[in-house]
Every structure is written in structure tokens, then in C-alpha cells.
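ligand=iron/sulfur cluster
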Amino acid sequence: MISERMEAKGLSDFEESISFRQYFINIWQAVFSVAKGMWITFRYVWAHKPVTIEYPEVREVLPERSRGRLYNDVADCIACNQCAMVCPVDCIYIASTPKPEGEEIPKTSNGTPIRLNLNQFTIDEALCCYCGLCTTVCPTECLTHTKDFEFTQYDLDQMKYDYLDPEIVAWRDRIVEK
Ligand code: SF4
Ligand code: SF4
């Protein structure tokens, strides 16, 4: 009976010592896992190059042929309508009238005669999908993509740009590198 009690007491002491040991193991594991996590965190903070940039203060250089908002140099536009016809979303609106008989026929910078008066050239940039087809077919190369992508508006109607508006030229001169 006595020996049974002693055995039971020994066993309980043993269980207590295991628990006590486990207690420190748990503490060590907690400290170790926190330290390991912080090591990984600080390694990314100090040793790795950031993958984000602080836009708009920092800007990436856009690829040479990136397609942003369209610009039409209307002085070279012959109102041929080809851009409007090829546009898959019909977002180019052109109106023109024939030049009155006897009026001088001017030429574009590449020598193409301008036989029509351009009365309207509007592009709805809210509809444009930046496919670039209109710039490809333009015979005088007056229609080009700029690199401007910062022209968000609250009202979609404000994204219809009238290229006969002198403000457009001012915008283009501000945006496009000479
Ligand atoms: S880029 Fe494409 S969608 Fe935009 S106006 Fe030109 S043809 Fe139309
Ligand atoms: S294709 Fe070029 S020249 Fe012809 S209407 Fe369009 S922008 Fe003008």
C-alpha cells in the first residue's frame, strides 16, 4: 500500500516536471516564432527593393509605344472619315463640308490636299478601347496616341473631346514631349 502511494507520488512529480519543462518549451517556441516572423518582416523592410511606387510624386517611364489619350492635329486632318469607319466602338464623330468652289485647296504637312472643311472632330474617350486602329489608317498621320492617361472625370460627357477646341492644343503641348 505504501509502495503504491510512493509510486503514485513519483508519477505525479514526474508529470509535474514534464509540464514545467513543457511550459518553458512553449515560451521558447512563442519567442522563436515571433522573432522569426519579425526577421522576415524587417528583411523585407530594409533589404528588399520596394515593389510599389509613390504615385503621383514618382512616375514610371511609360513604354515608347504606349497608347494614351488620342490627339488629332486638325491642321493636317483631311476629314477622310477613315478613322471613324475603322473604329470598332464608333466613338469618333466627324462632320465636314466641301470647300466652296474656287477656294484655295491647302495641303497637309505631307502634301495631301485638304478638300473638305472640318467642322467637327470629336472623340469620346470614355468609349475608346485604345486599340490604335484609327491611328494606323490615318493617311496623314495626324491622329496619334499621347501618353496621357490621367484624364478621369466625374461626368462621362466630359470625356468627349472636341479637337477643334484651341484648349486641346494647349493640353497637347503640356503633355507631349517635344
Ligand atoms: S483607339 Fe480604337 S477605339 Fe479608340 S478611337 Fe481609335 S479606333 Fe476607336
Ligand atoms: S483618318 Fe486621319 S485624316 Fe482622316 S479623318 Fe481621321 S484623323 Fe482625319
